[in-house]
Design brief:
Layout lengths: L1 H21 L5 H23 E4 L2 E4 L9 H40 L1 E4 L3 E2 L7 H16 L5 E2 L2 H4 L9 H8 L3 E10 L2 E10 L4 E11 L3 H15 L6 H8 L6 H14 L5 H17 L4 H17 L4 H10 L4 H12 L1
Length: 338
């Protein structure tokens, strides 16, 4: 019975490792499953000693020799149960010592930080576009529940840093880093990225994209999916569907949105927030169905109302502009992570 418990328990752990991410269950559920199975092993050991499985069913294990007295038999029984429970706890503790760190290590391997992208455009004022590409890739990766992604606020501190890859990975607590560069000229976009193992500074893979501006969303989706495959992160159907959604088909509207989103990060600079407002409005004018721009503009009006202009006009614009769409919550989360 104890052997059967070990075999079945091992199968449950393997099945849970594959199924739990697909069901979008929290990461702690796998560790909880392992702990419960380990706690149950001493009980399985005692039951295996106390009972036998026979063709006639489950029967109490017969005594090997007649006891000299009921008191002595009871004493031997208590001693044997104590020994079995102690042995079971020892085995469970040893198994947990090896299994639980492996579960945490697997989680550690599925971790990434997207470092600030370099701007290789001839016009330095296009730097906002490189930041926008980095931010969009980070947001796409954040949609993968099986992947640990470091926030934009934390990674922006490493812009232009001279620290080594190993040091950055250790400070951020991630196994991999994504570095990249962006060149935007006219209607063309060139994006170069490298996925690096933070432990040994080795390149896992590199990609070079040269596309039209309208294909930038395809680049971001392709990158996120390739990173997920490389890190063996499970993608649920809903996560995959979210990645393939294009926020807009209008390249000019996207540029206006990216620049506005970058200015929106300056939450204490009223002039920049006003510029962001104008750019959001420009993006919406070019594409009235641009949900992300609508949501961001509504959030911006709400911030301006609470921080600078507590008047009814700003309040009403914040209320009316917020669309009823799941992408809204992604925008709110992205802005709050800043």
């Amino acid at each position: 019975m104890a052997v059967a418990y070990v075999v079945v328990g091992g199968g449950i752990v393997q099945l849970a490792s594959a199924v739990f991410p697909a069901w979008e269950l929290p990461n702690w559920t796998l560790r909880l499953t392992i702990v419960l199975l380990l706690i149950g092993f001493p009980l399985a050991l005692v039951l295996a000693w106390a009972f036998d499985v026979t063709p006639q069913g489950i029967r109490t294990t017969p005594a090997l020799a007649p006891a000299t007295s009921p008191e002595l038999a009871q004493s031997h029984r208590r001693r044997n149960i104590s020994l079995l429970v102690s042995l079971g706890l020892l085995v469970s503790a040893l198994a947990g010592f090896f299994l639980l760190p492996r579960a945490d290590a697997t989680r550690m391997e599925k971790s990434i930080a997207v470092l600030p992208f370099q701007n290789f455009s001839d016009k330095q004022e296009n730097a906002f576009f490189a930041d926008g590409i980095q931010d969009d890739i980070l947001t796409n990766l954040s949609k993968i529940g099986d992947l640990k992604v470091i926030s934009r606020t934390s990674v922006m501190a490493y812009r232009g840093t001279s620290k080594s890859v190993r040091q950055i990975g250790k400070e951020l607590g991630v196994a991999t880093l994504l570095e990249g560069s962006v060149r935007h000229e006219g209607n063309r976009v060139r994006v170069n990225v490298q996925l690096i193992n933070a432990e040994n500074d080795q390149h896992l893979w590199a990609e070079d994209y040269d596309r039209d501006l309208t294909d930038v969303f395809a680049i971001q989706t392709d990158l996120a999916q390739k990173i997920a495959r490389e890190l063996q992160a499970q993608l649920s159907p809903s996560e995959r569907a979210q990645m393939t959604q294009k926020p807009t088909e209008n390249g000019e509207a996207y540029l206006a949105f990216v620049e506005a989103h970058n200015l929106h990060a300056s939450v204490e600079d009223r002039a920049k927030l006003k510029q962001a407002q104008q750019l959001y409005e420009r993006a919406i004018e070019l594409d009235p169905k641009f949900t992300l721009a609508l949501a961001s503009l509504s959030i911006l009006h709400s911030w301006i109302f609470h921080s600078f202009e507590p008047n009814e006009a700003e309040r009403e614009q914040a209320r009316q502009g917020l669309p009823n769409d799941s992408q809204v919550y992604l925008v709110i989360g992205a802005i709050q992570r800043r």
